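Entry 14: structure prediction run for Tight adherence protein B. Input pasted below.
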Amino acid sequence: MTLQDYTVYKLSIRERTLCIVIGSAIFFAVGYLFYHQWLIAMMLSFAGMLVPRFWNKHMLKQRRSAMSLHFKQALYSLSSSLAAGRSVENSFREAAQDLKMLIPDSDNDLITELHIICTKMEYGQPIEEALQDFSRRAAIEDITNFADVFTACKRTGGDLVEVVRRTSTIIGEKLDIQQELSVMMAQKRFESKALLAAPFLFLIFMNLTAADYMKPMYSGIGMVVSTVGLLMLGVCFWLINKIMNVKI
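Run finished. Output tokens:
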């Protein structure tokens, strides 16, 4: 059985189809709004074929963010179980059960991985090997760091309880900072989306209330002006996404 690689995300046929249909409809509407030409709008609608690529990146980012958050919760449970005197193997099983109570989602990636680790231990595979395999597939810095520290501590006979407690505290603090930044950026993201939507809303308003006034924009030099404006909006969208993509 091939285990999940968390550095890639594959859209289902349904997801891909929905992305193309919705994306094509949006681009068609934008094309008609800016040009009032059915042929140009149809040509622009083919840009909807690119939407699955961007949605794929978005879903991969969401999946990895969720795994990082759930890993933080699992570490707290693991630390508590070890401090209570449970064995390492039982502590991982307990962490999976605790996550099930916190996140009643049968498709949760981390719960699945904890079950895989427990199953590997039942078949006699050392826990550090199971953790290293998970960290390679996840390719998330916090998980990799924990797996490396855990492996070194297990092999050298270090204080596993203190190491796990300290590691969970550090990773938890880092994720807390990331969440605070995300909350702070949420308002700016909303404002940027509102600014990007404003030109489209303005065009709709003008077409509904002063259609004769807008007629020159849909012929001759007006179409050139519309094209330049649409390209500038595209550049603004790209720049905003770059600026808002804050990484720690």
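Notes: The mean pLDDT is 84. Will compare against the previous run tomorrow.
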